[in-house]
Amino acid sequence: LLDDADRAEVRRGFADLLRAEAASEPHLRGVLRQAVGHPGSLVRAQLAFGILLGHDWSRKSAVAVATAIEYFHTASLIFDDLPCMDDAATRRGHACPHRVHGEAAAVLGALALINRAYELLWSVLAALPVRIGLEGSRIVAVCLGAGGILDGQARDLHFEGITADEAGVTAVAEGKTVPLVRLTLLLPAVMADAAPADVAKLDQLSRRWGLSYQILDDFKDAWTTGAETGKTAGMDRRHRRANLPAAAGVTRALSRLDSLLAEAREIVSRLGAQDRRWSVLERLQCILENEDRKIRSRPLLVTVQ
Amino acid sequence: LLDDADRAEVRRGFADLLRAEAASEPHLRGVLRQAVGHPGSLVRAQLAFGILLGHDWSRKSAVAVATAIEYFHTASLIFDDLPCMDDAATRRGHACPHRVHGEAAAVLGALALINRAYELLWSVLAALPVRIGLEGSRIVAVCLGAGGILDGQARDLHFEGITADEAGVTAVAEGKTVPLVRLTLLLPAVMADAAPADVAKLDQLSRRWGLSYQILDDFKDAWTTGAETGKTAGMDRRHRRANLPAAAGVTRALSRLDSLLAEAREIVSRLGAQDRRWSVLERLQCILENEDRKIRSRPLLVTVQ
């Protein structure tokens, strides 16, 4: 998503926590070391960094915001993988933190990531005008709170009681996947004082991207062995979680993915694909379209149903 | 600690989350309902509220800060009680949230409390001068992060490997109990722009109070049935956690408690027991001294060892 130099900078920012927490209790430090040592694609961090740099922000502040968003995401994955949630064994190609360092340390490590994320965000928000600081804080609260991702996660975990039709699956995806995408797009835009009309477009985009991303993830969960994705596969079937290809069929899920990506493409164009403030969006759109093509070319597709 | 009207206001602030999250997923809402429906003594919220009111803050902002601190504390209790930590059955006289609504919902509910706590704090910090906003944010990060309560909690959970002498037990208590007391005293003081010399005294006081509080708690854990305290007793022995009366003996623990409370009394006097800015401290000091007397008057004391 970013060029090599920018990506390296985002990666350094993400790894910074470890230096700060070198004296922590060994199990806790082990979880943090794993969390920042296996950073994944850092796509959310790259997006936030790209938006802020596009708006002429300093690299230092942009890295702080990008890292904060990625820490929130990483914490959510550690929680998701716990025995009381997905009970996953593998994430990012390695044994999950709770399998290596124990559940308690995993919980404490995830909380440390969240704490550090708020600290990083505040360090930047505090220097902004009060109006922007308050609006930024409101977005964080809405996306990450009991009305945002936590509610979506709770609905996914207790999905078994809900009829698994397309609308039900979409509602769950909207709750659990859209909020972090929304945070990733809206928070940097609001911090950079983007025009309200552009923020509104980003809000629409985050819904399309979030749902697209979830459908792609549903396919990956259903048909890969985990060797490709680095995380335990088959979780949705095992836990009877919301999964669109399973609920609505492969054909319908693919056609839904198509419409969502077409709508997203339209929004990205309206924001201005050539506008350097938003050029990072164009690049993620291309990546998602490419993922879509890859899904379609898989011979094993029918095994999902 | 506060008069009836002030206490009622703090209690209303604490209960406010529920109204905001009325539409959450039922298990998640159940955890939040339990958390704010059984508020405990709200001693941390009362302290913070008392300090801010003593410094002529508006009741609205004081309630926001007080509620935030109490939500952090309540979240820490929900995590502590999880099967992977203390595996407790009862808290505040009721079954623990994870026993009623499931572990996953308990985790998500605790995270919702944390998210809301940051939102409340930020709503107040954002309007303060940048210098104070940054210093307030730093205190939150230090007290609640991987160098603060999370580290202390990790050390307590992995205490079995450490020699259980007085110094070792004190180090664990310092890590797990002092940070929240520190947050409760320092954050309101810094927000109210108290003199650095007073903030330094509060820092010393938080250590004495935190350790005193932990020793009182160690006694309660060891010798009550849980009917008195409303929470599962015998946790330290069962999990081989740090417990001063068990490690150093009852006589030594009581004499330690005496010195700590005498030092605390001295600090409170130096802050000015008659100074209305700090009068709430004098009241908590009296409550702790009273608890100390109660411990001494118990006939069953020797059963601890």
What is Rg of chain A? Answer: 19 Å
Q: What order do the SSEs of chain A take from the amino end to the carboxyl end, as H and E?
A: HHHHEEHHHHHHHHHHH
What structural class do the secondary elements of chain A suggest? Answer: mainly alpha
What's the rounded overall pLDDT mean of chain A? 91
Number of DSSP helices of chain A? 15
How helix-rich are the residues of chain A, as a percent range? over 70%
**Oligomer category:** homodimer
Biggest interface, which chains?
Answer: A-B, 52 and 52 residues
**Uncertain ranges of chain A:** 301-305
How far apart, in Å, are the first and last alpha carbons of chain A?
A: 33 Å
* Inertia-based shape of chain A: globular
What features would you describe in this structure?
The structure is a homodimer of 305-residue chains. With 305 residues, chain A is an all-alpha fold. In chain A, 72% of the residues lie in helices and 1% in strands. Chain A has 15 helices and 2 strands. Chain A has helices spanning 4-20, 26-37, 43-54, 59-81, 97-101, 103-125, 130-144, 149-157, 166-176, 178-191, 196-223, 235-239, 244-248, 250-271, 279-296, and strands at residues 90-91, 94-95. In chain A, strand 1 and strand 2 form a beta hairpin. In chain A, helix 11 (196-223) packs parallel to helix 15 (279-296). The radius of gyration of chain A is 19 Å and the shape is globular. The two termini of chain A are 33 Å apart.
